[in-house]
Design a protein that fits this description.
- Strands 9-16-15-18-13-11 form a 6-stranded antiparallel beta sheet. The chain has a 4-stranded antiparallel beta sheet with strand order 10-17-14-20, with no helix packed on it.
- The protein is globular, with a radius of gyration of 25 Å.
- The chain has 1 helix and 26 strands.
- It is an all-beta fold and 378 residues long.
Length: 378
């Protein structure tokens, strides 16, 4: 039941989505799923099935799940839906299942393409009241130097950790030295039972984002020791240290903001060992903290999780321009995000010239002057 009328473009559900056959959640997914919608003002469980969505539930389609090598029934699957080529308007949506034993984990509506891809590589589970959102960039600011941020030792922050690997490298202090690279990274000591790395700010900060990585240099890449769950925690105690207890009350110790699980890599979208940045908040506001730490998934020393740099409140870069083209009869409508100058060319190799008197959006006739290419220059 939605809060009002919704234009539905896609629907997602699953029995389970861990992908772990040993998790015990691979059963009770095979069968028939009947999708129904309504446009009634106040959808209710007792509302009847009718042929009119304004008065009851109307079936839009049926899916039959059967096991097979190319389809795993218990996993999460996404479907685009429409009516006569347009989104389906509804105040409510429901799924009728063919057996009382069938299980559905989560029902999602209008999942963005970024979120859909992200679900294949990353799982974010914030604690109640908190929000953690990946910014979608893969390896931004790659190089040997970390961007300016509040966690740097040069800003007065002090690195804290559970242990460190004694190999002449991989020290705790490396996590906020401002330098990326394998030799400037941190790995916990051998067989650390509860490995973590973090920073004490020496003051109270309002945290809006954080970033970390296994490595973020361009060459050579270090591809290992990044897979698993990262537990983000904060505290507001006066002088947080390695021995500050985990109490789930930020006023007395470490409290969990949420967990970010790295599952897989997809070429061109998400590279697990690279630097990734996350926006964070609590009840819609920045998170107040005197310290931040990350509990890492593996503390087995020489094969343990490697974390290169931990950043807090990195300045957000200027938004990149996205140029969109939409057909509108005999014309094409050009529109673009952010600021910039529209340019055109007869060939991709140029030369490119500014379009005089360009407006955003701008309509141009199709085929009137032959082939044209467009771009936006910042």
């Amino acid at each position: 039941k939605f809060s009002g009328m919704v234009n539905i473009t896609n629907i997602v559900w699953g029995r389970d989505n861990t992908g772990d056959p040993d998790a015990g959640s691979t059963d009770r997914a095979v069968g028939t799923y009947t999708l129904q919608v309504t446009t009634a003002a106040d959808p209710a469980t007792t509302m009847a099935e009718t042929s009119d969505p304004a008065t009851g539930w109307v079936t839009i389609g049926t899916l039959s799940y059967q096991p097979g090598p190319l389809f795993i029934p218990h996993l999460r699957h996404r479907y685009d839906i429409s009516a006569n080529g347009a989104p389906i308007q509804a105040t409510g949506l429901r799924i009728k299942v063919s057996s009382a034993q069938m299980a559905i984990d989560e029902l999602e509506i209008n999942v963005s393409p970024l979120t859909e891809l992200q679900y294949s590589v990353m799982r974010i589970q914030p604690q109640p009241g908190y929000l953690i959102t990946w910014d979608g960039n893969d390896g931004q600011f790659s190089g040997t130097n970390a961007p300016d941020n509040a966690a740097l030792s040069s800003k007065g922050s002090v690195a804290i950790g559970s242990s460190q690997l004694d190999l002449g490298v991989h020290f705790i202090k490396n996590v906020n030295d401002g330098l990326y690279g394998n030799s400037q990274s941190w790995i916990s000591g051998v067989d650390d039972p509860d490995p973590f790395i973090g920073v004490a700010f020496g003051k109270s900060l309002s945290i809006t984002n954080l970033a970390w990585s296994r490595d973020n240099t361009t060459a050579p890449p270090y591809l290992d020791r990044w897979l698993g769950s990262y537990i983000v925690q904060v505290t507001t105690v006066t002088s947080p240290a390695a021995d500050t207890p985990e109490t789930e009350d930020p006023g007395t110790g470490w409290a969990t903001v949420g967990t970010v699980q790295y599952i897989n890599s997809i070429a061109g979208f998400f590279t697990g060992y690279n630097r990734h940045r996350f926006d964070v908040s609590k009840n819609g506001a920045p998170i107040t903290a005197t310290g931040l730490r990350i509990k890492v998934p593996n503390g087995s020393g020489y094969g343990g999780t490697d974390l290169d740099e931990l950043e807090v409140n990195t300045p957000v870069p200027a938004p990149s321009v996205v140029l969109s083209i939409q057909l509108n009869g005999a014309n094409a409508t050009l529109s673009w995000t952010a600021s910039g100058t529209l340019q055109s060319a007869d060939d991709l190799s140029g030369p490119w010239t500014d379009v005089t008197n360009a407006t955003n959006p701008m309509s141009v006739p199709i085929g009137a002057t032959g082939q044209k290419f467009y771009r936006v220059r910042q």
